[in-house]
């Protein structure tokens, strides 16, 4: 994957650094941060292009890295400090905007019920209903481009949590992830199924190919997973995030599949959606009851974080959804200019 | 509880949701024809509204299916 085009002083400074071998210094972050604080510190961190793209770039060093970027940058103290500062701003934005969870008893069924209640299908406008009935070929392509940022590496951010858990919640997470990763069949990996969907729609299936076209909210929806996944202190939140993600998947994916069929796409292209109708009806039970619910029983002090992680998932998905629907109803593209 | 063999099947009735089936189980239709399982753990519809029966597709949530306490 190629480095993205910077969208502000943070990204410009980071890109300048990453094309060189890591320097033995930790003042890098200070230079970059001073420039950032002077400019963009007053904007909404969830919609701040420079912040979200820079954070995405820093997280990408922990996943697949970039062409021409030394892998040693991943653990450079200056970059970790920069990441920490950006995460602080991101977390503050989440704390301010994501609805705080209600007090919930730390037992399996109560936590699972609370999660199912939070994620219950609502009557309001939804991207899934729009794709099912109304979206044109260009709009469903845009939908795939937005989804590709996460889905071409589907499941990876939640995998960080595995070694941080033990017992029943760990077994539950591994059970879900094993299915996400194709149960031993690489061609059935959900990321591989999605790559096939992208090819079927005439899009490029290379990870990160479209990042320059994506707005901050789409990156924020993925960055929150990396934030929760990479920090052990957020292990409750990553469990809750996965539960909410799985619980809001089966019914919408049926509608996505219907939309792609309406537009004449073949079974190979809709396989990703059809697979998720069935798979996530399984996963939502395991993630809600055995992962999140059992984790709450093991570590009762994490209940608030579990529900916060779920609420953050829903809030950011809603922001992305609103961006898509607002753009389309205004007759404009939801993507940034190439 | 001592461990059971990994092959032994378990069926878990999820509150207001499907039956979660793990382990060595053969699914057959009314004629005895095998139904292919696409994953190791499957969820079987209990509300009657699934479009992919016998598997669950989450429809129980859309219709407000409630299991008896």
From TrEMBL, chain A:
InterPro entries: Haem_Oase-like_multi-hlx
Pfam family, one: Haem_oxygenas_2
Family matches, as Gene3D superfamilies: Heme oxygenase-like
Protein known as: Iron-containing redox enzyme family protein
Source organism superkingdom: Bacteria
Annotated source species: Cellulomonas xylanilytica
SUPFAM superfamilies per UniProt: Heme oxygenase-like
UniProtKB/TrEMBL annotation, chain B:
Any one annotated GO CC term: cytoplasm
Keyword Iron included in the entry's annotation: yes
SMART domains cross-referenced by the UniProt entry: ZnF_CDGSH
An example molecular function term from Gene Ontology annotations: metal ion binding
InterPro entries associated with the record: FeS-contain_CDGSH-typ (IPR018967), MitoNEET_CISD (IPR042216)
Iron-binding zinc finger CDGSH type domain span: 30-66
Protein name: Iron-binding zinc finger CDGSH type domain-containing protein
Organism: Cellulomonas xylanilytica
């Amino acid at each position: 994957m190629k480095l993205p085009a910077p969208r502000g002083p943070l990204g410009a400074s980071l890109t300048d650094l990453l094309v060189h071998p890591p320097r033995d210094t930790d003042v890098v972050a200070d230079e970059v941060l001073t420039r950032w604080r002077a400019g963009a510190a007053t904007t909404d961190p969830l919609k701040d292009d420079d912040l979200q793209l820079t954070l995405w770039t820093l997280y990408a060093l922990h996943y697949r890295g970039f062409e021409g970027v030394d892998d040693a940058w991943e653990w450079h103290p200056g970059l970790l400090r920069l990441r920490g500062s950006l995460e602080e701003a991101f977390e503050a934005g989440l704390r301010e905007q994501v609805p705080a969870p209600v007090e919930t008893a730390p037992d399996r069924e109560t936590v699972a019920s609370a999660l199912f209640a939070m994620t219950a299908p609502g009557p309001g406008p939804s991207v899934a209903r729009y794709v099912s009935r109304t979206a044109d070929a260009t709009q469903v392509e845009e939908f795939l481009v937005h989804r590709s940022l996460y889905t071409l590496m589907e499941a990876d951010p939640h995998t960080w949590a595995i070694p941080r858990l033990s017992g029943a919640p760990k077994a539950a997470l591994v059970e879900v992830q094993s299915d996400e990763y194709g149960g031993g069949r690489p061609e059935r990996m959900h990321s591989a199924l999605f790559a096939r969907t992208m090819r079927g729609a005439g899009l490029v299936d290379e990870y990160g190919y479209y990042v320059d076209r994506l707005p901050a909210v789409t990156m924020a929806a993925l960055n929150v997973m990396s934030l929760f996944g990479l920090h052990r202190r957020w292990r409750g939140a990553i469990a809750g995030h996965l539960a909410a993600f799985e619980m809001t998947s089966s019914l919408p994916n049926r509608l996505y599949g219907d939309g792609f069929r309406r537009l004449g796409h073949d079974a190979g292209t809709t396989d990703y959606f059809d697979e998720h109708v069935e798979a996530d009806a399984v996963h939502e039970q395991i993630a809600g009851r055995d992962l999140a619910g059992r984790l709450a029983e093991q570590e009762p002090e994490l209940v608030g974080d579990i529900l916060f992680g779920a609420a953050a998932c829903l809030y950011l998905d809603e922001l992305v959804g609103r961006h898509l629907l607002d753009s389309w109803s205004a007759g404009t593209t939801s993507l940034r200019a190439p | 509880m001592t461990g059971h063999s990994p092959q032994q099947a378990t069926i878990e009735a999820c509150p207001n949701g499907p039956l979660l089936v793990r382990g060595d189980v053969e699914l057959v239709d009314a004629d005895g024809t095998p139904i292919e399982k696409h994953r190791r753990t499957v969820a079987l519809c209990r509300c009657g509204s699934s479009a992919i029966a016998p598997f669950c597709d989450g429809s129980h949530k859309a219709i407000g299916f409630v299991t008896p306490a």
